[in-house]
Amino acid sequence: MSSDVAIKVSALDKCYHVYDKPQDRLKQSLLPRIHRLLGRQEKLYHRDFWAVRNVSFEIPKGKTIGIIGQNGSGKSTLLQMICGTLTPSSGTIETKGRVAALLELGSGFNPDFSGRDNVYMNAALLGLEKSEIDARFDQIIQFADIGKFIDEPIKSYSSGMMVRLAFSVQAQIDPDILIVDEALSVGDAKFQAKCFERLRQLKENGTSILLVTHSSEQIVTHCDSAILLERGEVLEQGDPKMVVNRYYDVLFGKDQHAIAVPTSAPTKSSTPKSNTHHLSVDSDLFSARQGYNPYEYRWGDKSAEILDFHTECDGIEYPLSVKTGKTITLQLTVKFFKKLINPIFGLTVKTKEGVTLYGSNSELLNIGSMREIGEINSTVMLSANIQANLAPGDYFVSLGIATRDGETITPHDRRYDSIHFAVEPPEPFFGLVQMNLSIEHVVRLDQ
Ligand SMILES: Nc1ncnc2c1ncn2[C@@H]1O[C@H](COP(=O)(O)OP(=O)(O)OP(=O)(O)O)[C@@H](O)[C@H]1O
After folding, report:
1. In the chain, how many domains are there?
2. Which segments of 103-147 are extended strands (E)?
3. Using one digit for the tens of pLDDT, what is the confidence trace for 128-137?
C-alpha cells in the first residue's frame, strides 16, 4: 500500500449462511460429514446471503470518505470488518496507524462502570498509556460536557450522553483513522455541530475519516468523496454530489421507473396569449435558456416533461445574478404525455456544494389549481416566486413534477440543479442566509 493511503480495501466479501428453518442449521453441521462417510453427494441446507460483495476502495491520508446506502445495504458490516470486529469471507483490508471507531452506541463501554472508568478503559483499548490518558482526560470530559454524570455508572446515561462520551474519547486521542457510524445522529444539533468542527480539525491534522450516514447533506458537506452501497455492492463511487444524486435514484425509484423517452426535436412553438414570455408549449427548449446548467441531473418516467422556463428579477429577464433579498419570478411550461391525477410541482434551492437550503412543493403549499391540471397532451404554465434571502454565492434550482399514490411518489420529470443563479449582496454579511440583522440602539450607559 502506498504511503499516502490510510485504508485500502480490496475485493471484500462477507457471506452469511441463511437457514430457512432452525433444524436446517443442525442438518448442515451433521449431515455433510455423514454423506461424506457414505460417499454420497453433499447437500446444502443453507442459502448464501452476501451482505458485502466485492467492495474495493482506498482512503488517502487526511481525506474524508462518506458511505451512504439504504437500510440493510451493508454499511455496518463493511465498517465492522474494517474495525476488525467481523471477519471477512474473503478480500483484504490494510490500515495504517491508530484506528478509532465510533460504532454501535455504547459498544466498548461497560454499563456498570462510571464514565470516568470507561474513558480510561476505552482509551487503553485504543493503545494509550495511563499517562497519555491523564493528559487528555480534562479535554475529553470537557468535550463530552456531561457534568457530574462522569462519575455515574454508564447504565444511567441517556443515549445522547453515551454518544457524547464515546465521541469525545475517540476524537481526543488523535487517531490516524477515525470511523464514525450513524452514531452521531443520536446527539442533539448543537453537539453534532461541535463534532463536525472536531472532525474538521482532525482532518486538518491528517486524520483520515470514514463517515457512514443516511444524510446526503453530511456527505456533500463533509466528504471528499463518497461510496453508495446497494445490496452489499458498490453502486457508485466518486464525487459526493454525483453519489448523492444516485442515492436519490435508488431511494425514489429512478431505477424502477425510468423509461427512455426519445427527446423530440425542437419545433416551432405556438404561444397562447397568457404565455407572455413565449415559453415553449410542445418542445424542450429548457436547455437553450440563459442560466440553464448543462450539468443538470435529469430523470423521471417522462409521463410529463418540464419543457421551458423563464426567470425575471427587478425587470431583468434571465438574470445571471440577483441582489440579496430580491424576488425571482420563475415561469415554466409542463407538458403531460399521460393523464396524471393531482400532479405535484416541487422546487429546491441548493448551494453549489449540494446543501439544500430550501425546498417546497404544491402539495405542501396546498395549491388547489394543481388539482385541475394533468390532462393528456395538455401543456400548462406555472408561475412561482422565490425570495433570494441568501448570502452572496452560487445557487442551483431543482424542479420536479411528480404524482403521489398513497406513500408512493412517482417522479415524472426531475431536473436537479437545472438553473443556476448567483447572489450579490447589497450590504456585506457572512453565513448562508440573509436574516436582516438590524442594530437598533447603541447607547452609552456610563454617563
Ligand atoms: N449475522 C447475520 N446473518 C445474516 N444476515 C446478516 C447478519 N448480519 C447482518 N445481516 C444482513 O446483512 C445485510 C447488511 O446489514 P448491515 O447492518 O451491514 O446494513 P446497513 O447498511 O448498516 O443497514 P442500516 O442502515 O439499517 O444500519 C442486511 O440485510 C442484514 O440483514
Report:
1. 2
2. none
3. 888 989 999 9
